[in-house]
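Q: How do we represent a protein-ligand complex in a form that can be generated token by token?
A: Start from the inputs.
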Amino acid sequence: MSDFDMFCYQCSQTVRGEGCTVKGVCGKDATSARLQDNLIFAIKGISAYNYHAKELGVSDPEVDEFLTKALYSTLTNVNFDIPSLIQLGLDAGEANFKVMKMLKEAHIEKYGEPVPAVVKQGAQEGPAIIVTGHDLKALEELLKQCEGTGVKVYTHSEMLPAHGYPELAKYEALAGNIGKAWFDQKKLFADHKAAILGTTNCVLIPKDEYADRLFTMDIVKVPGATVIEDYDFTPVIEKAKELGGLTAEETTELTTGFGLSTILSLAPQIKELVLSGKIRRFFLVGGCDTPNPKMSYYREFVEQIPEDCIVLTLACGKFRFNDLDLGDIEGIPRLIDLGQCNDAIVAIELAVALCDLFEMELNDLPLTIVLSWMEQKAAAILWTLLYLGKTDMFLGPVLPAWCNEDILNVLVSQFNLTPTSNPKDDLKKILG
Ligand code: SF4
Ligand code: SF4
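Then emit the structure tokens for the protein with iron/sulfur cluster bound:
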């Protein structure tokens, strides 16, 4: 644990006017302070998904009501009760479940249910726009406006799964994907003379080399970038043309876009393969990626997963290993990309469908979840899985900093959560 177990400076009673770092003057202890912080982080994650859902015209008053209640619970002198703060974490998981479901349904209604798509990875010749972030509506509007201009649009990071949506893939301008997870932006964008559009969180403060060709929109604002108003992407398209265009690189291929229906259409075959022992286990491996060298755990982990297991993945953690050719098990791909972080809802719906298929409870399924976390959306997703009663998950390689020993003990004792160690030992624990 860190030198100071808590930090709170939200009211004027705070120690020396600087911050309560051991125990609150109000009586708040470190664990309740951290659980309040955790709640705020989860709320931030839910709010991001809720915001995108509202952009698509859908909302849920119960979610909005929960967000207000949860925030109020973190005010000074309201809640010092650890069990109820844990329950609020679980309630946040429930609210996030609802909001992810609502967002997914809105995406499907607008863009169709994703189908597997093979995507060209790497630059092609010609003027280009690179779109990063999670906002599919922004991508759609941009694609419409690029039609007939000769400008190619590339996805980056969490935008990759857009290629699976039929109503987005139909645009000729959607050319491929460039780069990997969010944190390669500074080098990637400096190296590629394209206009860049940052649509959501996980956009970095630009280097001078590309600040004048970086555009953001709506809530996203970074120094040096131009903010686009009302989905009018004319300046982005003009900038792409003015830059002259990218030089063609050697391209590879990535597959994305496995929607629930696609996977469920394989259900009878999957059942047979599981019952005959040809598929031993499913792994859901993914989450938010970070530049931390310890994150190489995920590639090593997937490389060491035995050939009779299927790997499901989502969010930008997938870029650690989605270039691997894992082959298939009698036609069932061994690497299945379910989409963005909010598509954790697809993984959940798939798990529920597998429960029906095998007439099993969630925690009896041959399914192990190995989750990385970076920021607040991952906190919301973690609490959703805990709210659903999913136990035996692996989390790491860096644990959320709001976990002190007390909180970790709860996660371990109530949910059998295991901090990751090394791929070999973890796989041995899982597979025996
Ligand atoms: S709310 Fe409590 S812990 Fe926070 S600054 Fe005020 S006295 Fe300190
Ligand atoms: S998965 Fe997480 S870290 Fe990655 S781009 Fe999305 S929010 Fe950011």
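The chain has a mean pLDDT of 96. Residues 82-111 form the longest helix (30 residues).
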